[in-house]
């Protein structure tokens, strides 16, 4: 009887071990899928960061080119018109227009009826 009981206990233990082994296998499979998902997500984020870096590099070169063209247009670079000279020319032009306007007003004058 003892031998029969030992065999039942061994069968029960073996069954419990198989159940636990299946549970462990299921958990390992789930963990494997999670790590694969994390790996794929990390690669996708790295690709997105690379694309963003490329966009910012392109924007930087475009901005540098635009600022160089603006510097040439406003004469800020070497060989160009200095900013103070440009301001003086604008003020002189405005003063000249004001003098012409006042001169025209004086020359034409108000019409006096007799």
From TrEMBL:
Transmembrane segments: 86-107
Keywords: Golgi apparatus, Membrane, Protein transport, Transmembrane, Transmembrane helix, Transport
Subcellular location(s) of the protein: Endomembrane system; Golgi apparatus membrane
Topology term for the membrane: Single-pass type IV membrane protein
PANTHER family assigned: GOLGI SNARE BET1-RELATED
GO cellular component: Golgi membrane
InterPro entries per the UniProt record, alphabetical: BET1_SNARE (IPR039899), T_SNARE_dom (IPR000727)
Protein name per Swiss-Prot or TrEMBL: t-SNARE coiled-coil homology domain-containing protein
Domain T-SNARE coiled-coil homology: residue ranges: 11-73
GO biological process: protein transport
């Amino acid at each position: 009887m003892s031998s029969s009981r030992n065999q039942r206990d061994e069968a029960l233990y073996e069954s419990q071990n198989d159940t636990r082994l299946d549970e462990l296998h299921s958990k390992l499979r789930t963990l494997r899928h999670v790590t694969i998902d994390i790996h794929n997500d990390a690669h996708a984020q790295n690709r997105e960061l690379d694309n963003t870096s490329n966009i910012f590099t392109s924007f930087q070169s475009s901005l540098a080119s635009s600022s160089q063209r603006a510097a040439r247009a406003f004469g800020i670079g070497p060989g160009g018109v200095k900013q103070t000279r440009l301001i003086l020319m604008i003020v002189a032009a405005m003063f000249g227009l004001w003098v012409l306007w006042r001169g025209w007003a004086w020359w034409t004058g108000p019409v006096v009826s007799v």
